[in-house]
Amino acid sequence: MKKRLLACPTALLSALALTGCGLLPGQDGDGRTVVRVWLMKNSVSDDFLRRFTTAYEQEHPSVRLEVTFQEWTGIGKKVMAALGSDDAPDVIEVGNTQVAQYAETDKLFDLSLESVRDLGHEDWLPGLAEPGSIDGSQYGIPWYAANRVVIYHKDLFARAGVDGPPKTRDEWLADTARINRTGAQGIYLAGQDWYTLAGFIWEEGGELAVEKDGQWTGALDSAAALKGMDFYKELQSLGSGPEDADEENPPQTEVFARGDVAQIIATPGAAAAIEEHNPALAAKLGYFPIPGKRADRPCAVFTGGSDLVVPVNAGERAEGIEVVKALAGRRWQTDLARTMNYVPNKTSLASVVQGQEATAAMAAGAARGRATPNSPQWADVEADNPIKPYMTAVLQGRDPRTAARAASERITVALSG
């Protein structure tokens, strides 16, 4: 990876000499520096963007922000093209698990100094910070997170005499079985919800894949990973979710909306789809972190979300870094979390969403969040995901170790590039 270099003052003098009294490159008609920012569609609301842009430009009168929203579909190729051009934006929002593939181009600026000096990296959410760090250099600055929680039907819990959310796995299994005895379905868990499985594997101390001396190998056949799959099988058996499909086939929100399912595992955003299909459930939904093995901490979870990166070839790189520092700082993290119901980028900011039941449940889990293996080739694994058929094989009675070894071999091949 390219390390940062100190800019030569001569470059600025040369630019002034070449432009005379005219505009410098990157300035608008008022002589302000234009900082170009790419954000993903629906990442922020219009109101949040208006507040941030107005405040930032007031505090930095020599800067004008130019924000462009991008679609997730096809964004990988678009970012790669921008990084390879001489016209890259100054700040780009990227998925937290995408940083590795972009960093492999050597076209991302190393933000390690800012992460230590300005941004308090020590309590960043691990599921955002770790995938942003490549070979010891911080290329992605954590922005916001979201992760799975348990969405539950309060009335069905009460009918079964379950007073509140369970704190441990053992309590969770017992409560779910108790709900089943009332005639309701204690939980709906599809057989191929591999993101949820990943959390169970991490909770046991296992990994999806491990890296040694630059080589990645699948690790589903480790003793710890097999324990994670064993728990998944036990939990899944307490409901009628299909063994050979994921949570979108059929959509688990539609299944829950029928009103006879007590729990699903999903991000809180799934509540909107549930309520769309059954508005009567709106006041009956509750949320709690996925229970772990111990009562004092929730289960490990997969953390999705976004990091902010700055291209090496950004025209206004220094100003872009200042925008990143503002967006990742306490003031705008608090505003973003409360506006968008996101988890803020630091564990120390979890308190800003207290009182928001769903977001607070996410924040509790995010403290133990993880991301997928930090390999540029991990997307190749997901493209033809061997974890899903492995899960089905185990749920249908095949030997877990044999099935795990076969899936691990496929992961190793995909990660070998």
UniProtKB/TrEMBL annotation:
InterPro entries linked: SBP
Classification via SUPFAM superfamilies: Periplasmic binding protein-like II (SSF53850)
PROSITE patterns: PROKAR_LIPOPROTEIN
Keyword Transport recorded: yes
The keyword Nucleotide-binding is assigned to this record: no
Residues annotated as signal peptide: 1-19
Keywords assigned by UniProt, alphabetized: Signal, Transport
Protein family per UniProt: Belongs to the bacterial solute-binding protein 1 family.
Name this protein carries in UniProt: Extracellular solute-binding protein
Organism in which the protein naturally occurs: Streptomyces coeruleoprunus
